[in-house]
Amino acid sequence: MPYLFFANLPGKWLPQGQSLSRMRTYLDFEKPIAELESKVAELKALALEQRSVSIEEELAKLEGKAKAALEETYAELTPWQKTQVARHPERPHFKHYVDGLVEDFTPLSGDRFFGEDQAILGGIGRLSGRSVMLIGHEKGSDTEGRIKHNFGMARPEGYRKAVRLMEMADRFGLPVVSLVDTAGAYPGIGAEERGQAEAIARSTDCCLSLGVPIVAVIIGEGGSGGAVAIATANRVYMLEHAIYTVASPEAAASILWKDSTRAVDAATNMKITAQDLIRLGIVDGIIPEPIGGAHRDGIEVIKATGDTILKTLAEFDHLTRQEIRTDRREKFLAMGRSS
Question: Looking at the domain that runs over 85-334, which CATH code has it been given?
């Protein structure tokens, strides 16, 4: 489980509502890093008071050790550790990408059947001057936000809203950009009563039928059909420490071994990391994260993601609608073919 650590650290990435004097969340395997960075923070405070040459030399050495520990740890993450990083509460979410990349964003709400779902958000905006339809999961950045957005787990109306927006994009010739970050579709009784499976299937089918390009990026968790429903795209990218899976490790462990505590075993055997999936041909590219994960420098990650999306969309500028559909169809058919 993550634990909290208070520090005066001038981090580059500050989620909404946080100041420089902030609470940093460390994961279990980051404990040695937390201890070193705690000492760095203490020495920095002491250096400001005393301005001693000996303290500054010690501080430089300690900072070097902390950086080396961070690099060493993140160079050899296990699939389960990557799962923890993908779920880190301080990773940039959909709203952060909108704020950092999109101009004149106009949110569009409601599925025109039942109501508004806050787990999937969408709207029209301009990405470096290019009009796009942006759709994605929003988990929320604090307790109130997570409850409001249902932890990014969409109900049927969320997927029906996504279909409405994708069809609108198709009518007006707007490319679709999808940002995926969900543990899976919401499995509640109400969602099932309103046709969760049917809504996911229709959203997936809508992705396949569009005559405009779709670019999807797994920015955190890509869980089950809840992710595929808006990620059946011409190009699918993953952030370096994101995961993409048919079921969460906990759910897979419950199914396979009747024991959710074996999630570590499930994560290790399911090939859920970006590095595994690009080798299997499931995703088309990996977007690098800063050392220590996207939560340490969200600004850098958001910029890199925007650059990748724009470069990819340009590849489809001279293709016809049928050629774009064929490209997407062949991508997914190729996954099931053996050479």
Answer: 3.90.226.10
